[in-house]
Amino acid sequence: MAEIIVKLKGNELARKKITKSPFFFGSGPGNDFQLENPAISSSHFHIVFDNFQYKLIDDSSTNGTYLNEQKITEKVLEPGLKFVVGKFTVEITDLHEAPQVIEDAAGAGGQKGQFRSTVQLSEGDLQHVLQAALQQRDKAEIAAPPPSAPASPYTHRDPEPSSSGGSSVLLIIIGFVIILLLGIIIGKLT
Structure pTM? Predict the structure, then answer.
């Protein structure tokens, strides 16, 4: 998971994992990374994860955000870039990973099986989800009782409702994961 690291004169002051998108940085109390300093605006900049890349966007800060002594308003993040905010150096590491991992499906106040928000997964997380879905499908197939034969060839019986609703949901999840994996692969190729 990506991290934001703040240094002053080469000494690390603080670091924090980027757990969501957008991720806000500033001196105000509502930020995800709060650094109280007169040179830092209440809402100085934010980082978004979009189209499989991180972007740093200055929030019209009073003193600006600088890269190589040039004031920037928006910049796609690349490994090794260091930004200057006031007297502080800001670096973002592990840019190859998405900012948010799977949230608890039940969530606060939610019901099991319902997601509360958009979920962004790293390539490794997608592989784990796909593997878990396949294992769940295999368990469901093993546990399913064999279909029963009609009592008599002359007696008509309505088919019993099947429990394939779970299988349909599982197939949808597998399809969704495959589409996400293809998106990651295509994003890395472009």
Answer: 0.52
